[in-house]
Amino acid sequence: MCDEFIHPGLVEDSRLSRRGFGLLTVASAGMAAAPALAQSNVVEKDVAVKTPDGTSDSVLFHPAGNGTWPAVLVWPDIMGLRPAFRDLGRRLAGQGYVVLVVNPFYRSAKAPVIDDKFDFGNPEQRARLMGYRGAMSDDGVDRDALAYLGFLDAQPQTNKTRKAGVQGYCMGGTLSFRTAAALPTRIAAVGSFHGGNGLFSKQPNSPHLLIPRTNASFLVAHAQNDDAQNPQMKEDLRGAFAAANRPATVEVYAANHGWCVKGSAVYNEAEAERAWAALLAMYKAQLA
């Protein structure tokens, strides 16, 4: 979960201005109607995913052309689905995956849920996002995960004979653990990026307690300031993976909470690229 005392203050993306987001929407619609621009070789489509609790406005990506590819579900961070995560989904699809990037807050608002400058240090703005997160119960997240993977598996581009992956950022790390536990026969790889110290806690719904219910390999990329706040967590988490006999890499990166997502005040390109390379290596090994 995002800790207001450790999360970066300002998140910026000019594409989230009214004019910028309007242009982005037009561009996405154009890509949905035809093969993607040659420079990306990816098809992008805004989609409505039915869940037991409503309809999630999400975005689907897949390589252009004929063929089928493994599925990957992407849970965004506490700022939700926005252009930065569209960029991420497009890039991942270009590596040979069918990617669904979701609006985790569909129960409360359509995406995007922030403006072009969001200050996490602003109590009013922060409280709004925390309210959206609070509307997501654990059972609701599990239902969502089933619906999202069901949607992915219904796509003709998805190779359903190959395992699927899930990755999450900030709060999405917790949601990725839950997804792997909800779909143990489908999810073979889990990536958590600056997921925070809530991945291992004394709470009865701590994500680490779900590890024995999974059949996945894990990549946990931990932020250095999260680690400074609780140095023991990485060891506890490694112990939980070992006890469950689940293969996992738990590593502290030389960057702060939020470093993987462009637009964050702490975005660190070198460490973000290192985490990206580790993710792709895991997917290549596990999604077969």
Q: Which SSEs are present, and which pair or pack?
A:
Layout: E1 10-12, H1 18-33, E2 42-51, E3 54-63, E4 71-75, H2 83-93, E5 98-101, E6 117-119, H3 123-134, H4 138-153, E7 164-169, H5 171-182, E8 187-193, E9 217-223, H6 224-229, H7 232-243, E10 248-253, H8 269-286
Parallel strand pairs: 4-5, 4-7, 7-8, 8-9, 9-10
Antiparallel strand pairs: 1-6, 2-3, 3-5
Helix pairs in contact: 4-5
- Which structural class is indicated by helix and strand composition? alpha/beta
Q: What is the second-level CATH architecture? A: 3-Layer(aba) Sandwich
How are the strands of the biggest sheet laid out side by side? 2-3-5-4-7-8-9-10
Q: Which blocks of ≥5 consecutive residues have pLDDT under 50?
A: 18-39
Order of helices and strands: EHEEEHEEHHEHEEHHEH
Mean pLDDT: 90
Describe the biggest sheet? 8 strands, mixed
In percent, how much strand structure appears in the residues? 15-25%
Per CATH, the class reads Alpha Beta
Contiguous helical run count: 8
Helix content: 25-40%
CATH topology tier name: Rossmann fold
CATH homology superfamily name: Alpha/Beta hydrolase fold, catalytic domain
